[in-house]
Amino acid sequence: MANTYNVLAILNGKNAGNDDLRQAILDLRSEGHTIAVRVTWESGDAARYLQEAQALSVHTVIAGGGDGTINEIVSCLARLRPEERPTLGILPLGTANDFATSAGIPLPPAEALRIAVTGPVTPVDIIRVNHQRYFINMATGGFGTRITTETPARLKAALGGVSYLLHGLSRVDSLKADSCEIRSEEFNWQGDALVIGIGNGRQAGGGQRLCPEALINDGLMDISIITAAEWLPTLMHTLTREDDNPNILRARSRTLEITAHQSMTFNLDGEPLSGTHFRMEILPQAIHCRLPAESELLGTAPA
């Protein structure tokens, strides 16, 4: 008779040797939870493991890794039919862990794994880009994207999220705004943007809360634009404070169109996407996720 499991944990290969995580899995198994573990090695592994999860009738799939790993698994889930999608659990094992942090998921593996396996299930939104790409946390464009993609891996490994800030401050001489137009149902802006944040979650880039009021189950995406006017005070304000600043524009929308005069790059939870036109749309309650009941990302879901 084939083995059956209730939970399939998909771990980024860089994090599979975590002794605390190994013990946490053994502890939950001893309590009666049937947990299978798979480790990704190359592109395409997550999709293949999700097919296996379907064959095993797994009810929860855990994304174990950083924001990029979560994005890969969320994207695979989004391509399944709604009735085929297992519940998503989050196990933060990356450098920045922006989504897990803003969702209130603890970083110690034992605590995070218990929520991922037994925590309350809630439907959450995701965002689709250009009809084929997806993200659950945030898309960032402009200088912030260049910093997160250029920060050396060794610096990230040594300093975690602080590395993005330090590397960014070292590159202020290369600041270049993106000239673009951003349109939504009730919002239209055109100009030079230093940083653009499209948030389903609240933070990116190692802890920068670009969309501090975003909710993951309200059927809306939060838009934050840091304009190029008075860029240094504005950038420092964004990095250190959350109160209003006249050079930071905010809005909410269900759909969004961004047209750039030259090619620009958005970072979708760690995955770059370049072009001159981006269409983003919210997919309300697209997947079910295990999150802490007190998560600040959860508001009253729309009727």
Task: Write a brief caption for the model.
Helices cover 28% and strands 35% of the residues. With 303 residues, it is an alpha+beta fold. Helix 1 links the parallel strand 1 (7-12) and strand 2 (35-40).
Q: Describe it for me?
A:
The protein has helices at residues 19-30, 45-55, 67-78, 98-103, 109-118, 143-150, 153-159, 162-170, 231-240, and strands at 7-12, 35-40, 60-65, 87-92, 121-129, 133-135, 138-142, 178-183, 188-199, 221-227, 248-253, 255-268, 271-290. α1 packs across α5 (109-118) and α6 (143-150) packs across α8. Mean pLDDT is 85; it is low at 151-170. It contains 9 helices and 13 strands. It is α+β, with helices and mostly antiparallel strands. Strands 5, 6, 7, 8, 9, 10, 11, 12 and 13 form a 9-stranded antiparallel β-sheet that branches. Strands 2-1-3-4 form a 4-stranded parallel β-sheet, sandwiched between helices.
Defining traits:
303 residues, alpha+beta, nine-stranded antiparallel sheet, 13 strands
- What's the helix count? 9
Please outline the major beta sheet.
9 strands, antiparallel
Helix content: 25-40%
Outline, from the CA principal axes? elongated
Radius of gyration, rounded?
19 Å
Q: Spell out the helices and strands N to C.
A: EHEHEHEHHEEEHHHEEEHEEE
Distance between the termini: 44 Å
Number of strands: 13
Mean pLDDT: 85
Name the beta content range.
25-35%
* Uncertain stretches: 151-170
- Structural class of the secondary structure composition? alpha+beta
